[in-house]
UniProtKB/TrEMBL annotation:
Keywords tagged on the record: Hydrolase, Signal
Record flagged with keyword Phosphoprotein: no
Organism expressing this protein natively: Asticcacaulis machinosus
Name the record gives this protein: Alpha/beta hydrolase
Record GO terms (molecular function): hydrolase activity
Signal peptide span: 1-34
Domain Dienelactone hydrolase residue range list: 107-289
Domain of life: Bacteria
Amino acid sequence: MAHTLKYHVARWIRSGLAVGVAALASLAGSSAMAQADHTMTPIAIPAQPKAIELGTGPLPGATAPEAWHSQYGSVFARNVTVATLTPFLPDPSKATGAAVIVAPGGGFRTLSMNNEGWDVAQALADRGVAAFVLKYRLNQTPQDMPAFERSMAEMFSGTARRPPAPGDASVTLAPQIADARAAFALVRSRAKEWKVDSDRIGMVGFSAGAMLTMATTLYGQDAKPAHIANIYGPLAAVEVPAGAPPLFVALAADDPFFANAGYGLIDSWRTAKRPVEFHLYEQGGHGFGMYPKETTSTGWFEAYVRWLSMHGYLKPKA
């Protein structure tokens, strides 16, 4: 029987296979990453003057405050208790009216804000697509850095890898889905101000963010993304909703987490006769994002942009 997305949500979150992108990047093996600093260094929460609180409230039961750290020359957020959305708007002369909600990954424990958030959003804005980085609420982790590092290391342990009982994504990811729904609602409410077409708002997610993208598509009710991209997320088979949006998928064949479980998601979209494009790169590991690498996986963004163009999102709506 094909694994379902619900099973993978439960397994990924509760078994600890969703290691933060920061830890996973070290598995990718690029020379650029090899030269970067692997140490997790606490940093002050950076100024985010354009970030807009989404109004979904504080994470229930949270006690640890939001904290940030640097690693690999990038920055990561954790213990996010209040969701925000940060706009990256294109030059008005380039604006196409299309928009994308960008969901970084990090195992629902951290968020890779540079590599899978701001850098992606800026690159989209440079192509005329309005982009909005979703800093969604996260599962709590130990407040002090040594304890946090130990908790991340434990994710690699044999104990952590035991698969738990299946869970329901609509319940397991309820806070994050609520944040995504609020992000879509906010962009639509300010569509005129931001020069966005309300019916041309898509979503791209990385790793855990890819899981959230799929969960938002399946369980997000009024979110209704116009197009979606799953970048190195799980590819479990799903029940495809009627009128499902076009789907773009990118994964490396040496991804240590999702490269050996089949391609049920692709088959599901094809069986439902919905548009899907799948790029399986020979190398790239997990968490390649916008990091410069010597593998062909670095080309995923250009392929994604060409796909958006093919679907008409790099031109103003006729």
